[in-house]
Amino acid sequence: MSEEARERLLARRRALEEEQRLDEEGRKPVTLDQESVGRLSRMDALQVQAMAQALDRRREQEKLRIDAALRRIEEGDYGFCLECGEAIAEKRLEHDPAATHCIGCAR
């Protein structure tokens, strides 16, 4: 179970890193040169940049969750609720291998 989870976690982490690499263009600073970019285009570029940065922050948070799950696998604590210590349902871990809480404590 934990080896399968480990592989899924590593695959998801690689996918997140690839998404970040592909989205680098959207996070670049917006040029303020009004002659090359109109005001509305610049505003649109700023909005795209803000959305890309927010998405990047969410990806970083997910990578931290994945890293924590990988540590729990290495330490032998994977699959147990951090709140109550009970086993997390297998179906829950299949859905989200980085889950940290059982369904009762996650509410």
From TrEMBL:
Domain Zinc finger DksA/TraR C4-type: 76-107
Classification via Pfam families: zf-dskA_traR (PF01258)
Zinc finger (dksA C4-type) residue numbers: 81-105
Recorded GO MF terms: zinc ion binding
Matches recorded under SUPFAM superfamilies: Glucocorticoid receptor-like (DNA-binding domain) (SSF57716)
Keywords, comma-separated and alphabetical: Metal-binding, Zinc, Zinc-finger
InterPro entries: Znf_DskA_TraR
PANTHER family per record: GENERAL STRESS PROTEIN 16O (PTHR33823:SF4), RNA POLYMERASE-BINDING TRANSCRIPTION FACTOR DKSA-RELATED (PTHR33823)
Name of this protein: DnaK suppressor protein
Species name: Sphingomicrobium lutaoense
